[in-house]
Amino acid sequence: MPNKSFGKYLAFLLFANVLIKPIYIFGIETQAQNLLGPNTWGLYFGLLNFCFLFQIILDPGIHNQNIKWVSENRGNLSVRIGQTIIMKLWLGVLFLCLLALFGTLVDYPSSYYKLLGMIAVNFFLTSLYVFLKSHFPAVGDYGKETFYSVLDKMLLILILGVQIYVLKALSIESFILSITLANLIAILIAYTRLRGITKIEFYFSIRDAIHILKESFGFALVGLFMSFFNRIDGVMLERILGDEAYAAGVYAAGYRLLDAANMFALLFASLLLPMFAYRLSKDGKVGELASQAAKIMLLVISMVVLSGFFYAEEIMKLLYIDYTEQYADTFRILILSFIGVGFSYIYGTLITASGKLFLFNIVLFAGICINWYLNYKWIPVETSIGAAKATLITQVSVMLLQIFIVIKNFGLKIKLKPMITAVFYVILVCSFAYFMAQFDIHWIIKMGLSIIMMIIASFLMGLIRLDTFNNAEVD
After folding, report:
1. What is the structure's pLDDT at 475?
2. Are 127 and 90 a contacting pair, CB within 8 Å?
3. Lowest pLDDT segment from 210-224, 350-364, 400-414
């Protein structure tokens, strides 16, 4: 495959996702919450996050370890793919059993189990789809990542769009089943395409499966710890407060937009993980690629965080029919945590690609402890706002520790001039965004002008250059 730059792949990937995913998030999922109400959606959000806590069973590090292995070898994949699919089927059965067991331990009423089972099936299908599509960038076919990154959302837009805008009828059951159908279609398409690249031989050996799980153990802990400190807040809100999941619904409304931003940040990781792994296996030179990704991420973070912070009230009023001031206050704090999340998708991905996960897992475990303690302390007092504060402190703390690990282990030097440039850029765009927010014109115009200014400033100050999308070539 001819060399192309990380920037070009990323630009194409972002463009496709900017077209599709906002339509799903704002046109489909947000309207679904409006139709179902904050209490019903809060229950769904709580159960969804409960499933996230056990997602490690479905993917005990297999995905990231497999991407690393394929990126480094790019050899015969036929037996490994078939073997892993069978392994995931067994893990899916174990996942369902554990959810039922722990659902009883946390005292879920019997009425919850139907929804919990339906959500759990979707977790399995999503995990299988992610595994299948991860092979395309892993073998160097980065272009396919664009199509498969939006395929499931395009299907959901069609399936749920009919129910919401044509039939004007939606239940939480039909919403979940629609996700099931979209996942099944996406899996069929990805599997068919993958078989065009390589034969898939369904072979299973307990000995080989144990070997794969041993190789994946460090990655498994990363997945487990990240699930806990990213998702435990939704479960604690639903369990601690006796408000019929209202605060969880309010938190979910703001978290949806943070999750939307996370989807775009995750695109960096989906491209960077195989690229970092391949580079590390060849010459170990990842500095230029990491630097370029960080500069682009700084622009993305500034646009997302400043827009969300200064226009939280207007955005929440626009999206939710049952808006209260609590929606805006929660979201304004939550969106700040994207600072930590965004950079973590770069530096955490580099650590993951290296396979040096011991310190990384210690950092993530510390994040869980911080997050649990702060949630336990603040949720009873400040409800969804307290959970948002806990998320902000946790994400930023973990990001700083990841940067320390990268500097210590990969020899990446902090250069004074780029750091000063980045600091001046942040001061400039923050000042301009605050200044624009004071004008008495429509908020969308103010936000749009601020974003345009951020883009112009990133070019003028050299964070992003005209040749950014021609540098840092990848094989």
Report:
1. 44
2. no
3. 210-224
Contacts of 442 (CB under 8 A, 6+ apart): none
Contact 249, 384 (CB under 8 A): no
**Burial (0-12, 13-18, 19+ Cβ within 10 Å), 196:** exposed
Distance of alpha carbon 387 from alpha carbon 392, whole angstroms: 9
Distance from CA of residue 8 to its chain's centroid?
21
9 burial via Cβ count (<10 Å: 0-12, 13-18, 19+): buried
Domain extents for the chain?
4-474
| 3-class secondary-structure state, position 261 | helix
CA dihedral 90, 93, 94, 100 (to 10 degrees): 180
Check residue 283 and report its DSSP letter.
T
Best CA proximity match to 436, nearest among 449, 426, 452, 455: 449
Whether the per-residue pLDDT at 71 is higher than 70: the answer is no
CA distances from 416 to 227, 427, 465 (A): 35, 17, 19
Task: Dig out the tokens for 237 from the structure.
Answer: 């809100």
Spell out a b/e string for 236-248, using b for 16 or more CB atoms within 10 Å of the CB, else e: bbbbbbebebbbb
**140 conformational bin, left if phi > 0, alpha if psi -120 to 50, beta if neither:** left
Chain centroid offset of residue 151 CA: 16
Beta strand 4-5 with 473-474 is antiparallel
Please name the residues in contact with 323: beta carbons below 8 A apart, sequence gap of 6 or more: 316, 317
- Convert the pLDDT of each residue in 360-408 to its tens digit: 888 888 888 888 899 899 999 998 899 999 999 999 999 999 888 888 8
Inform me whether the pLDDT recorded for 473 exceeds 50: no
The pTM for the full model equals 0.68
